[in-house]
Amino acid sequence: MARKSAAPQRRTDQLSRDTIVAAAIDLLDASGEDGLTFRALSERLSTGAGAIYWHIANKNELLTAACDALIARTLTMSATAATPEDTIRALALNLFDAIDAHPWVGSALARALGQMPMVRILESLGRPIRDLGVPARDQWTTVGALLNYILGVGGRNAANGQLARTQGLDRSDFLETVSAAWSGLDPVAFPFARGLAAQVRTHDDREDFLAGIDLILRGIAAPRPRRRG
Amino acid sequence: MARKSAAPQRRTDQLSRDTIVAAAIDLLDASGEDGLTFRALSERLSTGAGAIYWHIANKNELLTAACDALIARTLTMSATAATPEDTIRALALNLFDAIDAHPWVGSALARALGQMPMVRILESLGRPIRDLGVPARDQWTTVGALLNYILGVGGRNAANGQLARTQGLDRSDFLETVSAAWSGLDPVAFPFARGLAAQVRTHDDREDFLAGIDLILRGIAAPRPRRRG
DNA sequence: AATAGTATGGAACGACGTTCCATTAGGAGC
DNA sequence: GCTCCTAATGGAACGTCGTTCCATACTATT
């Protein structure tokens, strides 16, 4: 007896949130931010968009979940080091490497404001910050400063990855272009940027990131000026 | 004599890049990042998408141009203050206020890597950093740290604005939700975040931002440890 | 066997960025 | 004056996206 349409073949294994998140991470790693679409996801999981939406509210939630899975994996690697400073340094470097390897994490983090992935990072930074002797009333701003710095670097890294993918030029080509552009800036209006053009070509992102962390750590250690009132 | 189709009525005034950028800024301010579409832009300028594309390469370039116009306007307001520290503080606060008033600038900045708006900020930070006595070899990382911190805050602000617009809840509602969520976290796994839940509700973004700038300034002023090698 | 709730796969909708194209105004050369 | 050429315009059309909808099929529970 003929049905109205051919019956769609059903899967035997159940689809699950974790399966979907794992597939999303694969897609993001393979094709960048733009690679995560419900069509590509459907094909990869041999299903339809509707089935995915049964487990996931929307794309943003999926992106945050993928980001959280990766951040959680990254943070569990970070053990405590000899000093609180070294713990923070190691933690920050682990995050940098993770974001560098998966640039989409940078932009996903920025959109996951008070949610799990950020909370995890906050928590991991919290203990060493307390161990540094930062008084309770300063802990909020201190961890915030570190977090914002890391987010800033992460966001830049995400933009870098996105640019490289869409423009099709690799990192050194891009840096060469920027360096040349800065060299050609008006020397009266932009003397400082002109002077930095050479470093655009030769700098090392990872070293610079760590130098920034060290700078902030020095700021944390420095005595605070007396408050007003 | 009848033509194939009604002749489209032509404008007498010329469309220009500046006109388009100005209209884009209006749309972004009025309706957020998602408010800038070529359809809305076409309607506002009483033209078609094709005419806009004659002056602008693509949406990303338009967004960067809008961002640059606003950043340029913001930075020209910033005069030099009594001390280099105060100059940096004033500059950073001007940027914060601009991003706070126009949240889309935060995410536009992140995507405009080596381009004009970033160069402008870099340049404005460069002079006071030199005046602080930062040696030439450290200026790159120093200005980078400040820039990344500002970008991080900007990105968070952008996400905030986007969230508020799409979810339809205002800032205090959102903070209340986050604070409640953090209070409900597992006290064993997340003691630090739990302890910060109250501050989520009561903190002041602008003050915290300035506290972060001060922290970094203290780090800049602190003596650097001797290098290896 | 009947039913209710859970889960699936794919079609359809509306909106977006971008491309294409027919058309027009304005000036240069004659 | 007229013709050409180019800069510019306005809107239709294309392909893709996130999301919604719905007919269908499994799986317990009665």
Tell me the layout of helices and strands.
Two copies of one chain form a homodimer.
Chain A: H1 17-31, H2 38-45, H3 49-55, H4 59-77, H5 84-101, H6 104-111, H7 116-131, H8 136-167, H9 171-183, H10 191-202, H11 205-221
Helix pairs in contact in A: 1-2, 1-4, 4-5, 4-6, 4-7, 5-7, 5-8, 5-11, 6-8, 7-8, 8-11, 9-10
Chain A binds a DNA duplex (30 and 30 nucleotides) through residues 3-5, 7-11, 14-15, 37-39, 42, 46-51, 53-55, 58-59.
Q: Would you write up a description of this structure?
A:
The structure is a homodimer of 229-residue chains. The first copy, chain A, is an all-alpha fold. Chain A has two domains: 14-56, Arc Repressor Mutant, subunit A (Orthogonal Bundle), CATH 1.10.10; 67-221, Tetracycline Repressor, domain 2. Chain A is 72% helix and 0% strand. Chain A has helices at residues 17-31, 38-45, 49-55, 59-77, 84-101, 104-111, 116-131, 136-167, 171-183, 191-202, 205-221. Chains A and B meet through helix 6, helix 7, helix 8, helix 9 and helix 10 of A and helix 6, helix 7, helix 8, helix 9 and helix 10 of B. The first copy, chain A, binds a DNA duplex (30 and 30 nucleotides) through residues 3-5, 7-11, 14-15, 37-39, 42, 46-51, 53-55, 58-59.
Helix and strand run of chain A: HHHHHHHHHHH
CATH class of the largest domain in chain A: Mainly Alpha
The end-to-end distance of chain A, rounded to whole angstroms, is 87 Å
Please identify the structural class of chain A as seen in this structure: mainly alpha
